[in-house]
Hints:
The chain is mainly alpha-helical.
Amino acid sequence: LGCPRVERASGGSVSMSRYWPEPSDVRRSNESAAAAGALASPPKGWPGCFSSNAALKAFMGKKALNGKRVRLTGTPSAEDASKASAVTIVPDDPFGNAERVQAALGWAIVKGFVVYECADQAEGTSFVAHLRWWNARESGVWVDFTPRPADAQQMVLLESAHAEAKTKKEASAATAEAAAARLALGGFLTQAANGKPAPPDAKAPKQQSAPPPPPPRLDFKGSEGVEELVLLLRRGTAEAQGKAAAAIAAAAAAGADEARQVVGAGGVAPLLLLLRAKGDAQEHAARAIMSMADSPEHQASLSAAGAIPAAVGLLRSGSLGVQDVAAGILGNLAIQSEPNQTAIVAAGALPGLVSLLAKGAAPAKEQACFALWNLACQHPPNQLAIAEAGAVRPLVALLSKGTPPVQEEAAGALMNLAAHPDNKRAIAAANAIAALVPMLSQGGGPAEQAAGALMNLASNNALNQASIVKAEALSPLVALLQTAPKSGEPASRRAREYAAGALMNLCLKQKPLQDRVAAAGAVPLLVGMLSEQAEGAQYEEAAGALTNLADTHEENQAAVGKAGAVPPLAALLRKPSASAQEEAAGTLMNLAACDANKDAIVSAGALPPLVALLGSGSAAAREHAAGALANLANGRPEHAEAVGAAKALPPLLALLQQAPEGKDAAALRGCGGAGVAARAASALALASLHAPNAAEVRSEGGVAVLATALGAGVSEAAAALVNVSKGDEAARDALLAAGGAALLVREVSAGAPAAQAEAAGAIATLAADSARLAEAVVAAGGGGPPGH
């Protein structure tokens, strides 16, 4: 193996414009710390002294050296020395050495200090730091090529923001004098045989050092800190590597701070190398990586270092004890990381994971389910790929045959797979529903994930909805809203949310199921969920279930209002969650259809946030808000007046002026009472029964806006035109100018039955009030209005 070429200090063939050692490169911890004298690095008791010695901690901290990262770093490995064999190394110029290594190998420069203890002072009282630069490999491992004194082969290196200022200078008597003074302070391998510094010699020939012998393998002692354990991973005996990997695995599993220390010490690369070993060292290294991957902050660095293909390789060739850990690594790396989810499937992980579902031991099956769960989470391409890889049937089999932890993970994986429309039928065909319904009564994690799986299977799938009801899921789903039946303890918030979501999907437009679920006592339980302030609580499913229970169901509308749903729903309108706002507005829209709830909704202060949603919510939120305002105004003049006072009329008109394209057009335009524009037109029609509101709509140019909406197919605009224009000659003129007569005639001739009725009524009312408009109707081919 080669090694870097070593020049004599302060001379040789190196350009004389260079970094020169200077006495100012040395910092002292206190006045009693001698700049010269015996030095020891690492300080005695390292690394424990870093936390226990206040003087050392203060010296390395923000007020002194301002350290960022600290590591105990040895001399370069034989491999690193070989890579840098063409680099010229000057013993007293760590700054230029680092720059030349960067130029040759691309390794980043790390700027900082070597920290020494003053060995001839009282132990733990005095410290000095020597300015020094070194390099960091692509993996983050620090490498210091500048030669060291024989008694300092292990050095404490401290990266520091105070180590930036160093400039090159031309050779001169002053630089030579400063260099000699600095060399006298120690820390460099530049001493002559008599112990005095070698004098600078600008004409000395280049000296090539012999390749260093391979460093001896280190033994495990049991007292090592993280930095020393990482060193053992690289330079320890096989036994020491295994023990060091076990210690690092235990440390990384202890918490985020410990895992951060392992990563910061450069532990990732040697741990990944140990995955190629066999036996205990491989398993311990895999467990350490799995623990580090559990923290999102390390996912990117682990993936960049090659953890994904390494773990996939273990799935294929590792021992049975290692395969479950490999699945755990992949599962952790996939958590909320779309790039990793994609990369794991692209690396060929699915066959190995699916194989573990059927052939692995219980821990391996659990970890394989966990990995598939996270790979499928909110990732439609992976959801399809996992199903196509044959995962559905073995996952369903584990629902009945697995241990409770395995059942939970399998149900969670199926829940995420069922989020894809193309997977719902396959999962149901594998008899998943019959296996999931009994799990609802188990309590704990299995019940939670079973409810989630049934929620997704029931979403927009009538066949699955019927199968779930046939499997008698309604009663245990309602029971799960309150308790886990076996233990009698409250179910988790997430389990109750999933149960509410399943009931929401099952009750959609299903009058018999609306009756059954309400009769089973679901309404007060769902209303209670709206007021809970649990950490991480979601409210969309509970509100959505109440929305569908109340949809066109007057008895349920009254029951939901009586159970106290209105105040928490009004509060949800003000939450920052768009989906919560959407569902709350939808529930209030349905509740407002019941006259018994109208006063409570207005009294709860719902009007201002509903009006705000008209301009800022999603398409569904705007539709629900407009629908709620329409229902509140319907038959209640005082509420129609309140809608106008809440400044709802301009944003309602603005909704009619939106011109969406593509798939959103139908949702915004609507027909037969549904859609944003249809709801907005209905709200304007009902609010305009209050004369001051009609006048405001006219003043805002509403006649032309409504006529345009009618021309775009919003039949509800016809009733709004009647209420806005009736009795106002200028408004009727504006309607004629906008071609309103021809538009109404067209609706009567070619509209849907509901639109024909709306338009015919509008023609009859307006023509009876205006001879000119009646003539325009006849001219447009509408015939004479009744009575003419």
